[in-house]
């Protein structure tokens, strides 16, 4: 057989991996700690926010607010002036 293959197989058979210790994983992991429970929102503040939302005036785009004049729409389309054909 091939001498390189024999050398490789001999080294492979002679290899003994280091035994795994139970403490080896501790250096690479973090301890789990339960996160703090979130605070629940206050019921009173929710009711106040809901009431203020329900009493808000509806704003519609394109409508003038009370006391304001409606914006005048401008014509931005520019037509090219046609030149009158010259007589020969």
Automatic annotation (TrEMBL):
The domain of life is: Eukaryota
Please give one Gene Ontology molecular function term for this protein.
proton-transporting ATP synthase activity, rotational mechanism
**Which InterPro entries has this protein been placed in?**
ATP_synth_F0_suH (IPR019711)
Q: Where is this region: Disordered?
A: 18-88
What ranges does the record list as Acidic residues composition bias? 75-88
Instruction: Tell me one Pfam family matched here.
Output: ATP_sub_h
Q: What is this protein called?
A: ATP synthase subunit H, mitochondrial
User: Which species is the source of this protein?
Assistant: Aspergillus sydowii CBS 593.65
């Amino acid at each position: 057989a091939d001498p390189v293959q024999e050398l490789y197989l001999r080294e492979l058979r002679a290899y003994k991996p280091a035994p795994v210790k139970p403490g080896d994983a501790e250096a690479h992991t973090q301890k789990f700690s339960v996160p703090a429970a979130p605070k629940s929102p206050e019921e009173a503040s929710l009711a106040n926010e809901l009431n203020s939302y329900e009493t808000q005036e509806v704003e519609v785009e394109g409508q003038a607010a009370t006391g304001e004049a409606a914006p005048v729409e401008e014509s931005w389309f520019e037509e090219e002036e046609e030149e009158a054909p010259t007589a020969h």
